[in-house]
Fold this sequence. Notes:
It is built from four helices and ten strands, in the order ααβββββαβββββα.
Amino acid sequence: MSQKLPPFGFAEDLLKKLPETDPKDPDQIVRFVEAVAEAEEAEPQKAVATLQFITFALDDELYALRVERVREVIRVQHITRVPQAPAHVRGVHNLRGAILPVLEIRTRLGLTPATVTPSSRIIVAESRTKRVGLLVDAVHQVIRVPETAVEPPPVEVRNRLSEHVIGMVPAHERLALLLSLDKLLFLPELAP
């Protein structure tokens, strides 16, 4: 049972585009498609890279680090203070027999020193082939974000204390401040 095409011009326009067909032509389908089908965009869309971040809290603010630098997250058991340790070093932690320096992220960002609570965690990260612990108030989760969603920090938040904030990441229906691990460990006031 065949149906007639509507008489309002579509079928007529379509038939005008068609080349004469030879039933023995093996390429007749290709010729039909070339004549009728809409051309696709010349440039295929590039795949957007997905980045992974670990999110954590300091006070009521949300922060993020690239997950590639993170080795593990551990509970805070005992941090041993080290006399005359560099500024912002909370102490050292015994990580399965290895000494792990623990950085006080809160004071590095200009906040008050951390009070260790049951939700406090140490993020074990790698910088310059060495492992370092980052003391944080709580760790949330690992998130995946399209690379295009990462924004540079607004000019209003840039100052001497926030030079280690390298971006803003959408996370948990909020914005997380993306930190640079290398900039957190570098103390410009000690540089020559």
